[in-house]
Structure formats: structure tokens, C-alpha cells
Design a protein that fits this description.
CATH superfamily: Transferase(Phosphotransferase) domain 1
Helix content: 40-55%
Strand content: under 5%
Number of domains: 1
CATH topology: Transferase(Phosphotransferase), domain 1
CATH architecture: Orthogonal Bundle
Largest sheet: none
Distance between the termini: 49 Å
Radius of gyration: 19 Å
Number of strands: 0
CATH class: Mainly Alpha
């Protein structure tokens, strides 16, 4: 829309990421870029019917992905006070004391470590050899 950047856009992006993590595809997904942009601007947010999601998380995503920026969350406090996050101890999250329910070991799988190294790390590894 070329209207500049604000925290509301950051909240939208966070909502899009959460949507994709929960449902497997980004909201308004299309392989066609023009259709994708059209969907983002014009279509109502839909949730996949085959995936269970609570009313709270759906409401949270609707607020994060609201097209009218004035209707989105206004600040982090408002986000953290949403009912979907009521059982999350934000002090523990911010202090990095909260243990995730599942930790992946991305190098103990079929991934190639080089896919995760940035260019600087590759250069250092070359120098060490």
C-alpha cells in the first residue's frame, strides 16, 4: 500500500508468521503474486476447516491480521493481555526462563549444516582448514 511502516505492520507480520506456524501456509496464500496481493487487500481471513484451533487463537489472529490498522493491537501490552496468552508467564518468557515443550536438533536430521551457515561462517571454516 506504500503507506510507510509502523508497529501495526510488525504485528501484522507476527500474525502472519503465527498463522503459518499453526496452519502450514501463510494467510491469503497463492502461488500467483498478484493474486496474493489481491487476497491480502480484499479477502476476509479464513481458517482451514480441517485444523482445530481455539476461539482465542482465532480471535488473536484476526486482531493481528486486521486490514484496518486502527483495529489491530496498539501495543505489546495489549497483545500480552489477550486471552489466548493468559496462561503464559511473560516475565519468564522475557527472562528466557520458560522451557519450550519441544526442542528440535536441526543437525540430527536430514538437514545439511551448510544450509544454515551464513557467508561469514563459511569463510571462517575455509580459513580454519
Amino acid at each position: 500500500m506504500k503507506k510507510g511502516h509502523s508497529f501495526e505492520i510488525d504485528y501484522y507480520c507476527l500474525g502472519a508468521l503465527l498463522y503459518e506456524l499453526l496452519f502450514g501456509l501463510p494467510p491469503y496464500y497463492s502461488r500467483n503474486q498478484n493474486e496474493l496481493f489481491h487476497n491480502i487487500i480484499n479477502k476476509d481471513l479464513e481458517f482451514p476447516p480441517n485444523i482445530q484451533a481455539s476461539k482465542e487463537v482465532k480471535n488473536f489472529l484476526l486482531r493481528m491480521l486486521e486490514k484496518k490498522t486502527e483495529m489491530r493491537f496498539k501495543n505489546v501490552t495489549e497483545i500480552m493481555n489477550h486471552p489466548w496468552l493468559k496462561n503464559v508467564n511473560m516475565s519468564e518468557v522475557l527472562a528466557k526462563k520458560l522451557e519450550p515443550p519441544y526442542k528440535t536438533d536441526m543437525f540430527d536430521s536430514n538437514f545439511d549444516r551448510s544450509d544454515f551457515e551464513n557467508d561469514e561462517e563459511k569463510e571462517i571454516l575455509k580459513l580454519e582448514k
